[in-house]
Amino acid sequence: MLQAAAFYVLSAVAILSAFMVVSARNPVRSVLFLILAFFSAAGLFVLLGAEFLAMILVIVYVGAVAVLFLFVVMMLDIDFAALRQGFLSYLPLGGLVALIMAIELAMIGSLWVSAETAQFALRSPTPEGVSNIEALGAILYDDYVLFFQLAGLVLLVAMVGAIVLTLRHRQGTKRQDVGRQVRRTREESVEVVDIKSGEGIG
Amino acid sequence: MNDFVTEFGPVGGALMSVAQILGFMVVLLVSLAFLLLLDRKVWAAVQLRKGPNVVGPFGMLQSFADFGKFVLKEIIVPAGADRPLFLLAPLMTFVLAFISWAVIPVAPGWVIADLNVGILYVFAISSLGVYGIIIGGWASNSKYPFLGSLRSAAQMVSYEVSIGFVIVAILVMAGTLNLSEIVEAQGGGFWNWHVLSLDMLPWPAVLITIPMFVIFFVSALAETNRPPFDLPEAESELVAGYQVEYSSTPYLLFMIGEYLNIVLMCALMTVLFLGGWHAPIDVPPLTWVPPVIWFALKVFLMFFMIAMVKALVPRYRYDQLMRLGWKVFLPTSLAAVALMAGFVVYSNAGA
């Protein structure tokens, strides 16, 4: 009973905050509601017994990705009132996309609910006596290791691409080179000059 | 909690676990009051001052006097501030600082929630800690807090990466994510602690584990915005960073949260590297001491070191901070993870 109560509270919070993401007037608040939605989704994962996924969701999405969102939204001075003006003209298209997604979700949901097909939908059920993380690790690193590594490579290429796009060598800036600072010796940096009184360096 | 339910029934069990949590919180807060005093006393001693010495014997009650002062003052919310978020930020910092303690094992079986993913839980909660600061800085609607919160967020996100890799290396070594099991694997003597780990791995592993401990220590300083990485507060440039507009109880909550996070990092270092509740050597006079005392002593030692760092080291420049995090710690800890995995595979194959 406690689990059912937790499920309804978490899903209600998730749905409400997802709604607030699109309806909040202030963009920073939208992002904060998005974070709340992520967080409730993580709670739902815990209820499903997928605690590893829940923690990863919090660490990656809430702890890193949403921080960057918040950064951008806080620093950009976007006039959201102007963005909202096209709301009615975009409504039919947006409504259509939402409808299609709702139908697809309902189809997936019906697959899960019917008892005979539920086991089929679960490709590899968690084996008995093995923790969630070990089961996931076994699947990722034993059965699908090639795809896992390929996914990593794709991410690496994306990262290199992002760096190449933003890397700019500016001329004339002074950079700190710690290696050079450490390698500096007394001989090359200090010069003792014997100046006669009243003559100056000349 | 499940043990309580089987022992005292559903209602009694729930009450017992609430009592357990409250008791732990009270112990934490009282210890925190004295650790805060220790911090100030160490700082003063290094600078040849006396430090707080008026309230109570040797100034022992100074923290409680400060507490009373903060609570009794008026809460001021700036006119341009986003009121709900302005008050939410310190609450978030405070609550998040407490809930990560739920999985820290202080003695055999003395843990509120013995999670299977304990270390990931701590990591997740500490990555949430940045929100208290960002929201606080933004909701103040003022320049210095905003700049301070931006700095702090960038800093915390950067150093979380190297903390994460150090934790991964330890996990590879221990083979579990449960904090109690990590501590249990370190029993028998100080040479078995993960900072040396001479029983599990061939001796050259020491060349990885000791630098990992150092990286974790320095990253913990940066993660908790402690000197020499207290750039978000940098009073000479930003007045006091994200806390400028805060006064009275909200400020107190920020400060308690910050210090509690520091102590949490000390506890994590104790659990991950220094053998948790285990005595340094398993011989009678040392094993008579209760495990929780050993745990507290190690946390105390780590906190003393952090306090000394605050007193001794000048503040880093911001670009130096970022360079240290991304160009020094990140590659080093990444290489250490790879090497450590190699050691573990090698020693398992040999055994």
TrEMBL record, chain A:
What Enzyme Commission number does this protein have? 7.1.1.-
Q: Where in the cell is it found?
A: Cell membrane
Tell me yes or no: is Transmembrane helix among this UniProt entry's keywords: yes
Going by the entry's taxonomy, the superkingdom of the source organism is recorded as: Bacteria
A Gene Ontology molecular-function term? Answer: NADH dehydrogenase (ubiquinone) activity
What is known about what this protein does?
A: NDH-1 shuttles electrons from NADH, via FMN and iron-sulfur (Fe-S) centers, to quinones in the respiratory chain. Couples the redox reaction to proton translocation (for every two electrons transferred, four hydrogen ions are translocated across the cytoplasmic membrane), and thus conserves the redox energy in a proton gradient.
Protein name, per record? NADH-quinone oxidoreductase subunit J
UniProtKB/TrEMBL annotation, chain B:
Q: Which reaction does it catalyse?
A: a quinone + NADH + 5 H(+)(in) = a quinol + NAD(+) + 4 H(+)(out)
**Keywords assigned:** Cell membrane, Membrane, NAD, Oxidoreductase, Quinone, Translocase, Transmembrane, Transmembrane helix, Ubiquinone
A Pfam family this chain is assigned to: NADHdh
Cite the GO molecular-function annotations of the record.
NADH dehydrogenase activity; oxidoreductase activity, acting on NAD(P)H, quinone or similar compound as acceptor; quinone binding
The membrane topology noted for this protein in its Swiss-Prot or TrEMBL record is: Multi-pass membrane protein
Residue ranges spanning the membrane: these are 12-38, 85-107, 119-140, 161-180, 200-222, 259-280, 292-312, 324-346
The protein's matches in PROSITE patterns, at most eight in alphabetical order, are given as: COMPLEX1_ND1_2
Q: Which InterPro entries match?
A: NADH_UbQ_OxRdtase_su1/FPO, NADH_UbQ_OxRdtase_su1_CS
Task: Name one cellular component (GO) term.
Answer: plasma membrane
Where is the protein situated, by its record's location annotation? Cell membrane; Membrane
This enzyme's EC code(s): 7.1.1.-
GO biological-process terms attached to the record: aerobic respiration
**Subunit structure, per the record?**
NDH-1 is composed of 14 different subunits. Subunits NuoA, H, J, K, L, M, N constitute the membrane sector of the complex.
Describe the family membership recorded for this protein in Swiss-Prot or TrEMBL. Answer: Belongs to the complex I subunit 1 family.
Against NCBIfam families, the record matches this protein to: PRK06076.1-2, PRK06076.1-6
Functional summary from the UniProt entry = NDH-1 shuttles electrons from NADH, via FMN and iron-sulfur (Fe-S) centers, to quinones in the respiratory chain. The immediate electron acceptor for the enzyme in this species is believed to be ubiquinone. Couples the redox reaction to proton translocation (for every two electrons transferred, four hydrogen ions are translocated across the cytoplasmic membrane), and thus conserves the redox energy in a proton gradient. This subunit may bind ubiquinone.
Q: What is this protein called?
A: NADH-quinone oxidoreductase subunit H
Annotated source species: Marinicauda pacifica
